[in-house]
Amino acid sequence: MEFPFSASKLPLQMFVNNEYVDVENPRKLTLYNPKDGSLVSDKVPVAGTEDVDLAVKYAQAAFPAWRKVAPAERTKTLLKFADLLEEYYEKLGELTRLTLGSTPAFAQMEASVAAQGLRYNAGWIDKFAGQTYPEADGFLKIIRNEPLGVTAGIVPWNGPLVTIGLKAAPALATGNCFIFKPSEKTPFAALALGPLIKEAGFPPGVFQVLPGDGSTGALLSSHMDIRKISFTGSCATGKKILEMAAKSNLKRVTLELGGKSPAVIFDDCNIPNAVKWTVDAITAGSGQTCFAASRVYVQEGIYQEFMTAYVQAMKDKAKVMGDPEAPGTELGPMVDRAQYERVSGFIQRGQSQGKLLVGGPRVGDKGLFIEPTIFAETDPKSEIHTQEIFGPVSVVRRFSTEEEIMKLSNDTSFGLMAGVFTQDINRAMRIAAEFDSGMVGVNCMSLSFLNAPFGGTKESGIGRECGLSALLAFTETKTVMVNLTY
Ligand code: NAD
């Protein structure tokens, strides 16, 4: 297959019913490359009402046949699509890098996670059984898991393709039609999926991609014929989507939102291991990850030793920040000027809320780079300690007792990820149970697995992705009661 898109030939149409079509909405967006500010395109389309309606109409038409496609056939289609994602990852990654400022290694990781997600869910297709309850009372109860119909995924800019594996894969595996809306900041890889979708063998209308910003997301969220939104993004947008779902047709909603995840590091931990995980977990994606280790709590006995190593490791990360295309680069710029200004603002204001230990100023005079930054002894009520910054910025505090630090760890509106670093298995288990979060790492953090539920408590979200949870989230149970005494 000849892949038709590149940096000089961007995909600037929507992909519906297995065809590229111009959007009706005349509004266009402008995107720049964050590594040098150069113009990428001023013709990025935004799907409007008619465009969304058209995609939904095609999906509705495709659903009755797709839900009945034999499991072997559906499995084959998902597996083929997974192979194609890996085959074309470099070209897709090039399109993402234009506006995300990510590295080539990120492109490979993204395609690989998306492909593994497709394979994982494809494997479930002929194993996703229902349940039965015995007929001792005269009635046999059969519990069926049925697809919802037309579903949609609305996703952020920091992992444009990863979300294919997390959202499209379980949606399609369980027999739903799926409309994918990438972020307006990183739309090109998603918009370029059309040839791969066709080549994999998805029937027209089953898997469609719509470009657009929040206005397109709002049209999807309030659409009367969309039965589910699976959303990843900010808490503020998640709340709006939940409201739109409630005000329209009470569509099902999964929300994967933000975090301010604590790493609790005890005196008896392996310090190099704790440093490695906490540094990686705040610098991956230049800190633009939902489960970043953005609060670091260190017990007083090892505070100085840990901090010396932590500060040095963060300084070392600054040395591998730069042009994402250059060999050896691990950290790229912030995604765009708005994000850069936002993170810079936090750093500027943070200087009256804690002690700036390292980082802060931008790297060089070109591009939207922020150095890995640490604030120490921050006021626990301050903005920098409580709000999601979404950049390579951590806050650190020392603590003495387990009781004190668990109280502070859970004193947050978020609950996505938490980490505990200790060699004491009893303490680790006790603390893992005490964290009010959807995920806990013991001697690790900020990681996820396709077969284990991913998601947060409190304002970090509703529902779980990955594992069986994802398949259940894209289906509705139906109870069939059979009267055996009749
Ligand atoms: P965002 O909420 O601004 O945008 C996310 C998506 O929602 C985009 O596609 C956007 O177009 C769309 N959108 C915006 N307004 C909308 C509206 N009113 N109705 C419907 N859709 C709308 O988030 P972002 O800035 O792109 O991403 C950063 C956020 O995402 C951070 O808070 C981060 O923590 C979170 N995130 C969470 C996870 C997770 O799995 N928990 C993963 C990655 C990112």
TrEMBL record:
| UniProt-listed InterPro entries | Ald_DH/histidinol_DH (IPR016161), Ald_DH_C (IPR016163), Ald_DH_CS_GLU (IPR029510), Ald_DH_N (IPR016162), Aldehyde_DH_dom (IPR015590)
> What residues sit in the active site?
E256
One Pfam match, by short name?
Aldedh
Membrane among keywords: no
Q: Which GO terms label this protein's molecular function in UniProt?
A: aldehyde dehydrogenase (NAD+) activity
**Tagged with keyword Oxidoreductase:** yes
Reaction(s) catalyzed by this protein? an aldehyde + NAD(+) + H2O = a carboxylate + NADH + 2 H(+)
Q: What is its EC number?
A: 1.2.1.3
Q: What SUPFAM superfamilies does the record tag this protein with?
A: ALDH-like
Q: Where is the signal peptide?
A: none
- Which part of the chain is the Aldehyde dehydrogenase domain? 23-480
PANTHER family recorded: ALDEHYDE DEHYDROGENASE-RELATED
- This chain belongs to the protein called aldehyde dehydrogenase (NAD(+))
Q: Which organism is it from?
A: Capronia coronata CBS 617.96
